[in-house]
Amino acid sequence: MADTVINSGVGGGANPQGERIVGFWGRRGPLFRILLMNSLLGLLTFGIYRFWARTRLRQYFWNSVEIDGDLLEYTGRGLELFIGFLIVVAVLVPLLIGYQFISIFLQTNAPDIFIAVNFLYFIGIFWLTRYAYFRARRYRLARTVWRGIRGGQDGSAAGYAWLWFGYAVLSVITFGWAVPWMTVELQKYEVEHARFGVENFRYDGTGTALLRYWIPCGVVLSIVVVAAIVTTVVYWAELQLLFDSVTNLGTDPSSIDEDVGKIFAWTYGLIIIAYLILIPFYIYYRIAALRYMISASNLSEVGFVAEFSGWQLVGYWVLYFLVVIGLIAVVVLLVATFGVVAALSGVGEVADPGLAAVGIILSVIPIILLLFFLPMINLLLFYYPVIRHIATTLRLTEISSLERIVQSSRDDPRFGEGLAAALDVDVGGF
Questions:
Q1: Are residues 314 and 289 part of one domain?
Q2: Which of 206, 409, 197 is nearest to 300 (CA)?
Q3: How many structural domains compose the chain?
């Protein structure tokens, strides 16, 4: 393949510091029409259209981002996603069927081995999700183009999955204190194996720099884990009695000390409260980590400066959450109202089967509408404003150094994201 050199673009003028701001030109109206058409065609094709729907959605978002006067392009095709999915399904389905037969045999003849095999199976599924995530990134970057130069993702998907697995185990052992290093090392692997043309990105982030943002989460997690472990160890015998009682294994519930039951209730009640307290701290960490990781990345001499408002991102999430809760409340009220009408119309001396049927239909319609529009609301009220805000507050420095980058001659993946689609792995929301 012949090398293609980037030409200097026009527009998006430089500020006095020689920095350029990324633009975002997407509008909610066109996005809503795309989402509506995607949903309708998805229903008509029994979900098969979702591969073309994702492609159309990515084209919209990619083509809405302007860098130095030129728009990003997404060159992927729905057919590539569909074929990739079929290939993976053709491999996974026989394996899953074989696993089911083996499980049935082991459950009857070797229960101990059955438990071990199931444990390894679930570990393998978690490992595969990270493997699929990295493969999906490779496809998306290879289909991302700016000024005729495409991106790319090198590195090993298996290596990435093992890196994730190792840090996940370490995070459990350290009661969550290894999470900042896990975040940084995974991001470093993704970034330093990503490229634009022939030029690889670089990443200068460290786990120590993220630790200060993680401290509140680490403290809460440590308290929760230590409380759970101490309670479980001290009252292990009573816990077994309580478990046997709950699972109806013949244990008399009256044999369990009432004070012990209260201790368990208070301990695990506090754990639930602690996790609720953890949520805002974790959101704070994710936002701070995102800002830090963007600013710690660079390409050639181009630097990235993230200036988005964390409070604004939280505001988008709160608005989306409140709207969803409000819609669910309205749907529950409508379903309850029409359900009562249907129930009252179907009994008694003046029963009206026709009115009862109408009540049943009317009680189902709000649920269908909610399920139909919920994904659209997610993209319109959360993903759209978040992407727009991050894009328009991102500054690039020394962008002129991109002019010397040439196209890579490395082969692109022919098909993409089959495993991610089969395992329903989220890679950036769409």
A1: no
A2: 197
A3: 2
DSSP strands (E only) in 294-416: 297-299, 302-306, 394-397
pLDDT in tens, 253-269: 555 556 556 666 776 77
Residue 84: strand, helix, or coil: helix
Token output for 27: 């509008």
Tokens linked to 238? 């009573």
For the chain, what is the radius of gyration of the CA atoms? 27
Distance CA 163, CA 161 (A): 5
Q: Which two tokens stand for residue 249?
A: 């294994």
Q: Which tokens sit at 256?
A: 């369990």
Residues 6+ apart with CB under 8 A from 73: 62, 63, 144, 145, 146
Which own/partner contact pairs does 86-92 have at CB distance under 8 Å and 24+ positions apart?
A: 86/418, 87/415, 87/418, 88/418, 88/419, 88/421, 88/422, 89/418, 89/422, 92/422
The predicted pLDDT at position 198 comes to 87
For residues 387 and 61, what is the distance between their CA atoms, to the nearest angstrom?
9
CA angle 273, 275, 278 (to 5 degrees): 115
Question: Mean pLDDT, to the nearest integer, of 408-430?
Answer: 65
The reported pTM is 0.83
CA dihedral 319, 308, 306, 214 (to 10 degrees): -60
Are both 268 and 345 inside the same structural domain? no
Q: Containing domain of residue 320, as a range?
A: 308-392
Place of tokens 């082969």: 411
